[in-house]
Design goal:
By secondary structure, this protein is mainly alpha-helical. 68% of the residues lie in helices and 0% in strands.
Length: 301
């Protein structure tokens, strides 16, 4: 039945309504904790202790952020280190992943199955923390450099196999026609393969950037220079200082510090917001490719 405007009238579909309601509920369940964390970060410590967590601050305060931004230059420097590591590491990791994935995905590469097995084999075993530490500090001499935060995680066998699974699906006729037109391997890779691999690169790039941004343990092991401390490790140290001051009453009395209203819980939430905030703005940039990339690397039936 048509409406007066000539457009077909949509019928009510209970199934679609339930699906939309389900995903709206799931979205609320994911957004609500973030809003709660933001609210608690602006709540007075005594109000948190007395009333608990609330979406609306009982007593509004910015004390937690004042404590974190007590040394703004240190915080900005840590953000700069993390941003450089994330951008540089993601670009280099994607380039290496795409190049290795492209090589082992070529059907005319005689050693492709052996190379694929070798890459897969490295996923099954790990050298361990001590050999890795000796390799990085004594042989590669990367300790106390910015590259120690980038190089050890540049190559991921899992990401390479995922990239290979995507590139295998590309029609080989595209490469053959490019060769007929006189294109060489590097030109084919950079001018044809990479643009066609945008969904896979965006999806893998998102996960790689998350890994670099949230990484703090390598800095804890290899970084002694305060100018190279990333934001995650800086926040961990701040939290350790807060916990030490609030749990050692003898030391607090000795240095004459008032910790009765010290931002402990609210500072945790404020640090969480500062840690994840920038990545929340990056994710929407990759969203248009994310749906396409959800099936990246899936095998043909």
């Amino acid at each position: 039945m048509n409406t007066s405007a000539g457009h077909p009238k949509k019928s009510f579909k209970p199934v679609e309504f339930l699906i939309h309601a389900l995903f709206i509920a799931l979205a609320i369940c994911m957004i609500a904790p973030l809003l709660l964390v933001i609210a608690v970060s602006f709540t007075e410590e005594t109000a948190i202790t007395e009333f608990g967590y609330s979406f609306i601050p009982k007593v509004f305060t910015t004390k937690a952020y004042s404590y974190i931004f007590e040394s703004p230059l240190v915080l900005l420097r840590a953000y700069g280190v993390t941003a450089f590591v994330t951008v540089c590491g993601t670009v280099l990791a994607l380039l290496i992943t795409a190049m290795l994935g492209y090589v082992i995905s070529r059907r005319n590469f005689a050693y492709g199955p052996y190379a694929t097995f070798f890459i897969f084999f490295t996923m099954l075993f790990n050298g361990g923390l001590v050999p890795s530490y000796i390799l990085i500090t004594q042989y590669l001499h990367l300790s106390d450099t910015i590259w120690v935060l980038i190089v050890p995680t540049l190559v991921s066998p899992f990401n390479i196999l995922i990239m290979r699974g995507f590139l295998v699906k590309l029609p080989p006729e595209i490469i053959e026609s490019a060769k007929v037109d006189g294109a060489r391997e590097l030109r084919i890779f950079f001018r044809i393969i990479l643009p066609l691999s945008t969904p896979a690169l965006a999806t893998l790039g998102l996960f790689i950037s998350f890994g670099y941004w949230n990484s703090w343990f390598p800095a804890l092991l290899y970084i002694n220079n305060e100018k190279l401390v990333p934001i995650q490790l800086l926040l961990v140290r701040m939290m350790e200082n807060i916990n030490y001051l609030t749990s050692n009453s003898d030391f607090v009395r000795f240095v004459d510090v008032d910790t009765s209203n010290f931002p402990t819980l609210s500072a945790r939430m404020a640090m969480a917001i500062l840690a994840v905030g920038p990545m929340m703005f990056i994710f929407p940039m990759f969203q248009r490719y994310f749906v396409q990339g959800l099936t990246v690397g899936s095998l043909k039936g």
